[in-house]
Amino acid sequence: MCPRFGVHYSQSNILKFIYEHISQKGFVPTIREIGQATQISSTSVVNYNLERLVQLGYVVKPYGKSRALALTKRGINFIEVHHVKYNLQPVRDKNQSVSHIDKLKEENHQLVIENERLRREHKNQVAALRREIQYLSQELRETQRKTELHPV
Questions:
Q1: Is the dihedral of CA 19, 78, 59, 8 positive or negative?
Q2: CA–CA distance, 78 with 126 (Å, rounded to integer)
Q3: Radius of gyration of the chain, Cα coordinates, nearest whole angstrom
C-alpha cells in the first residue's frame, strides 16, 4: 500500500492500465480487459478495486454506465508521480506536448458532459412521445367505441 495515496498495489496497477489504455487507444478498457492486464481473474474483484478507487477520488464512474470510467486529476497525478518515481515516462506520443494532451483531455471531458446531456434530452423526448402515443391510442379507442355505439 502506498501510504501517501492510500492505494494498494493492485489498485495502482489498475490505475496505470486505465491510464495507458486511454492514452494509447483513446477509450476506457472493459472490466475483463482490466482484469487480464492486472492478472485479476475475478471481475468482481476488479469492480471492488474500481469502487475503492472511486471512493479515494482517483476514478469517476457514472452510475449505470459500463465503459464510462474516467481518471480524475488526482488519479492522473498518482500515475505520473509513480512513472517519475520509477523512471518511466508517461505514455505520450513524442510529437504531442503536455499542454496539447491536457487540452485533449479537457475537450474529451466536455464531450462526455455534452453526451450525457444529449442522452438525457433524448430519453425525455422518447418518454414524451410514448405519452403522446398512449393519449392518441386512447382517443382512437374512444372514437371507435362511440362510432360503434352510434353509427352514422
A1: positive
A2: 42
A3: 24
Break the chain into its structural domains and give their ranges: 9-91, 92-152
Q: What is the pLDDT of residues 21-77, one digit of tens each?
A: 888 888 888 889 999 998 998 989 998 998 899 898 888 887 777 677 888 888 888
Cα distances (angstroms) measured from residue 35 to each of 7, 50, 71, 149:
17, 11, 17, 67
And the C-alpha cell for 26? 483513446
Cα 138 off chain centre by: 40
Residue pair 71/15 in contact (Cβ under 8 Å)? The answer is yes
Nearest Cα residue to 70 out of 37, 116, 130: 116
- Asked if the 9-91 domain carries CATH number 1.10.10.10, the reply is yes
Give strand ranges (E) for the chain: 59-60, 70-71
- Would you tell me how many other CB atoms lie within 10 Å of the CB of residue 126? 10
Q: 0.70 cut: is pTM over it? A: no
